[in-house]
Amino acid sequence: MPLPSAPMRDPRGRPRACRRVAVRGVLAAVAWAALAAPAAAQWVDTAAVSAEASLAMTTVQGGLELMGSGAVLLGLTPRFSVGGGGSVLLGPRELPGSTRGTDQELRLAWGGLVVQLDVARRDDRHVWVRILGGAGNAKVDLAVVRTRIASDNFGVFVPEVGGSVRLRGPVRLGAALGYRAVLGVEDLPGLVPADLRGPSARVLLSVHPF
Predict the structure, then answer these.
(1) Residue 87 neighbours by CB under 8 Å, 6+ apart
(2) Model's pTM, two decimal places?
(3) Beta bridge partners of 159
(4) 3-state SS string for 26-63
(5) What fold does the segment set 47-207 form as a domain?
(6) What residue spans define the domains of the chain?
(7) What is the pLDDT of residues 1-42, one digit of tens each?
C-alpha cells in the first residue's frame, strides 16, 4: 500500500510571507511617525537642557570639607526637570591613625539621578526642591605611602532646597542647602555611616536653556 505523500509547498511562500511582514512593518512605522511627529515637535519646543557647577561646604566625620558638584538637567515641563549629577570631595579627609606613621586619608565621591521641581517663580528668580538618589564610593588610604586600605560602595540620598537669580543672558547664580544620607557603609575601618552623612551648603552657577 503506497504511503500518502506530503503536501507540496510553494518554495516562494516563505519569501512572500517575509515581504508581507516587512511591508506591514514599514507602513506601521510610517504611520506611527506621522502621528507622533506633532507631539515630538511640541516636546522639543518645551524641553530645555541646563548645566550647573557648584562649590560647597559639607561635613564629613564632623569636620568641614570642600566639595565640587556638577549636574545636567532636562526640563520636561516648565517646572519639572530630570537629569544626573555628582559630587566629589576636593581633597582627602585626614583620618588620624592609632600610631605615628599610620595616618589615613578618606576620599569620597557620589552621584546619581536628579529630580527637580520648581516651586516658585517670579521674574528672573525661582525656588526649587531637588532630590538626588544614587550611589557613592569611599576609599581609605595610608597617607604616607598612598596604599589603599579599604574601599566601599554605598547608597546615597540627597534632598535639597535652593534658589537662583538670572545674572545675564542664560547665566544664573544660586545657592542651595541639602543633607546627605548614606546607607551600606560596612567595610571601612573605623568609620560608620554616620561619619559620611551630613549637611551641605553650596553656591552654584548654571547655564540654561541651551
Answers:
(1) 56, 67, 68, 69, 70, 109, 110, 111
(2) 0.71
(3) 131
(4) HHHHHHHHHHHHHHHHHHHHHCEEEEEEEEEEEEECCE
(5) Porin (2.40.160)
(6) 7-45, 47-207
(7) 444 444 444 444 444 444 454 445 444 444 444 444 344 334
